[in-house]
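Fold Annotation — chain and its backbone
Encoding — discrete vocabulary of local shapes
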Amino acid sequence: MEFKNKVAVITGGASGIGRSTAVALAKMGANIVIVDVNRERMAEAQREIEALGRRALTIQCDVAKYDDVTSMAKQAIAFAGGVDILMNNAGVMLRGFVDTLEPADWAWILGINLYGVIHCCRAFLPHMRERGNGYIVNTSSIGGLIGGQPNSIGYSTSKFAVTGFSEVLYKYLKPKGIGVSLLCPGLIRTNLPENFRYVGDDLQALGAIKEIAKEPGVMEPEEVAQMVIDGINKNKFLILTHPARFLTMMERRAKDVQGFLDTQLPTL
């Protein structure tokens, strides 16, 4: 894809992977709509993009609220007459076991991580279909491909749902000239732990999660941004930041499945 003078809308675009992708696209000539809830960080990102000689618009929006999203979409489309790229990147973390999570906890994480993606796709797709082109990047997680620890059930559920939604979306939109990529990051040095909620009394686990961004060997968001751009250029559906880790997890899963088959098939 030629990015010069294209318009990209990025939710969660004021920090982390979203901001790094916004800057990387701006360096390639794109104009950016930064969607976030943090006004101060949006202003910083806007200044960084404008310093590159590109246009930037900031819109404060809660992606869990469809009315907010539809208003944001109208502003984004009016910004430069059209939107070429939509990156659904806003996300939060939740830890807690299934018997400790309350309906409000489920509503919070599904509202942002899953319904945020659904809302934005619903708001921008009529515009993209009318134009006959466009590209959507949905951020899931490696935890949306392989289930995590028992206390990650809320997060994994939201991300597995984004994965399934994106797979079907890809099949639906491909013949319509609209591309779809699914970004599945592993450990990335972002501010995601700032929006972390833990339901329960395992404070040691809470502390460990908040230290993730400080661990050595964690990938930088700028690296992920380049992977996203490469994925768009190659019209690649699955963008994995840590393929080796994913393959290791898949091998373990395969052994589990084989063990189940070996023990259960004779009784079926």
In short: The chain has one domain: 7-267.
